[in-house]
Amino acid sequence: DITDIHLPENKGKGFAMATGIEQSQSEIIVFLDADLTELSTSHFANIINQLIKPIVNNEADMVLVQPYVTILNYKINPFKSLTGERSVKRKDILPILGKMKNSKFGIETLINLYFQATGKIVKYVLLAELDHLSKFSKTSTLSASKQYIKEGQEIALTSFNNFNLISKVIKNNLNKL
Predict the structure, then answer these.
(1) CB-CB contact of 55 with 73 (8 Å)
(2) Stretches in the chain below the pLDDT threshold 50
(3) Contact 150/105 with Cβ under 8 angstroms?
(4) Could you give the CA distance from residue 79 to residue 23 in angstroms, rounded to a whole number?
(5) pLDDT above 70 covers what percent of the chain?
């Protein structure tokens, strides 16, 4: 089931996502950004299927969907884990629900750090029909630049506030060597 939730006050992306989790009863939670473009019903169904299937088949604990521009762009994109299109097992994300509420645009960073720190399996899926409007196409260059700077600050603050998770991620990666 898909439920549209309207919040009376804008308290940030992290708060909105946490509220969605709280109100959901589903075992798998799917997040989609509101600025996806060119979505037909079949495209939407395909995106949902690609997000859910790896979790149902126990291939992943979290699935991140990326626009398929070119393989080269995808492989070198340092921001690919900041996608808003993702799915997670509800039970896996509940432990950070409280932190999510204050993370604002650092929400994806928080979720990524938590899943990496706890050794969860993350899978990336490329989809040709997925496209976002950039802030530069929705507003003036100055306004878009200010919004990106604010988001960057919120991401940096989330990283700083969760240094313990970063330490665990580093330790996990060193143990793999």
Answers:
(1) no
(2) 70, 72
(3) yes
(4) 29
(5) 87
Q: Which domains can be identified in the chain, with CATH numbers?
A: 13-175 (3.90.550.10)
| pLDDT (0 to 100) of residue 5 | 84
Residue-level pLDDT at 68: 65
The amino acid occupying position 173 is N
